[in-house]
């Protein structure tokens, strides 16, 4: 007797006909650029929630500054007339001197540049921007 193979509705592991809503989890953030963008974004969210003057300021991430200045390679540019701050990823990441090269210290270093750039925009001391954030 010859059996006709019926189409398998569930596949070998019972997962063939699942809806498109069920997807595997998103891949983890892998690249340095993605981690940098995420760190900048979270620091900017904090600053905007604490300082209304920064709510309309555009924070951009640039690759490299157009040129060096008298102090060397800038880590950020503040364009107050355009309400814009540009953070340069490569100088921040590659020219930093971390005493411990781990994710926590890298994140703290990136956040410090975001705070310094915002402080320059506001003409304040960086420590004034989040005084409770650094008090333990």
Automatic annotation (TrEMBL):
It comes from the Bacteria. SUPFAM superfamilies: Metalloproteases ('zincins'), catalytic domain. CDD domains: MMP_TTHA0227_like_1. This is Metallopeptidase family protein. It comes from Microbacterium dauci.
């Amino acid at each position: 007797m010859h059996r006709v193979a019926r189409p398998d509705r569930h596949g070998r592991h019972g997962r063939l006909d699942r809806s498109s809503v069920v997807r595997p989890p998103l891949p983890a953030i892998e690249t340095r650029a993605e981690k940098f963008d995420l760190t900048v974004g979270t620091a900017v969210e904090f600053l905007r929630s604490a300082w209304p003057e920064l709510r309309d300021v555009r924070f951009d991430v640039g690759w490299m500054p157009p040129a060096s200045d008298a102090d060397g390679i800038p880590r950020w540019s503040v364009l107050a007339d355009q309400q814009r701050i540009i953070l340069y990823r490569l100088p921040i990441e590659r020219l930093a001197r971390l005493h411990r090269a781990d994710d926590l210290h890298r994140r703290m270093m990136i956040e410090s540049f975001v705070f310094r750039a915002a402080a320059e925009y506001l003409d304040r001391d960086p420590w004034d921007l989040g005084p409770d954030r650094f008090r333990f």
